[in-house]
Design goal:
alpha+beta, MutS, DNA mismatch repair protein, domain I, Trna Endonuclease, Chain: A, domain 1, 5 helices, about 30% helix
């Protein structure tokens, strides 16, 4: 993605709003970031922090103060309990060319589109659940995750973050015997 001119972008609630049409169109069309709502681009916290870290986007609070990366991360951690684990997985996938989008309606962290896919034209390949390596996962929860993924014709993907911030992915498939 080509370098985007940094514009004022406002952090509102748990969304980041981009009202500048040129910037919004560039982020959406060139990088598949966000979704348009009432002619403004709404970015997820992970998308906004990622773009900020890549120096593609400046983000401001309601008082007009620019939020630096560390401030933005701390604010995001207060707004979203598992933000840092989710962000590390999101960032890792984006850096590899995959396209993660929120998957709250499926009970997951992200829907993951294959490299080069376009949401709306193609379907996501996976429903992804993020965890850190010290979290335990009850068998009933794991079974529910797998059933949901299977029922919406997606594969289950687990993204596990270790203490060094590296992510390991596990794909879960059904086997009929």
């Amino acid at each position: 993605m080509k370098k985007v001119k940094k514009q004022k972008t406002l952090f509102v609630g748990s969304k980041i709003i981009v009202s500048d049409q040129a910037l919004a169109s560039t982020l959406f069309n060139k990088g598949n970031f966000g979704a348009f709502v009432n002619s403004k681009l709404e970015l997820s916290i992970e998308e906004a922090v990622y773009l900020n870290e890549k120096k593609e986007l400046k983000i401001y609070d309601n008082a007009g103060k620019e939020l630096k990366f560390n401030e933005l991360v701390n604010l995001a951690k207060r707004k979203q309990k598992r933000f840092w684990v989710r962000y590390l997985v999101f960032s890792d996938l984006r850096n590899m060319g995959y396209l993660p989008k929120t998957a709250f309606k499926y009970g997951g962290d992200f829907r993951v589109y294959n490299k080069g896919s376009v949401p709306g034209k193609e379907h996501a390949e996976w429903i992804l659940y993020c965890s850190d390596e010290h979290e335990s996962l009850p068998l009933l929860n794991f079974s529910a995750m797998n059933r949901v993924a299977h029922s919406v014709r997606k594969r289950l993907l687990m993204g596990v973050v270790d203490d060094e911030g590296s992510v390991t992915y596990y794909e879960v498939n059904w086997v009929r015997m």
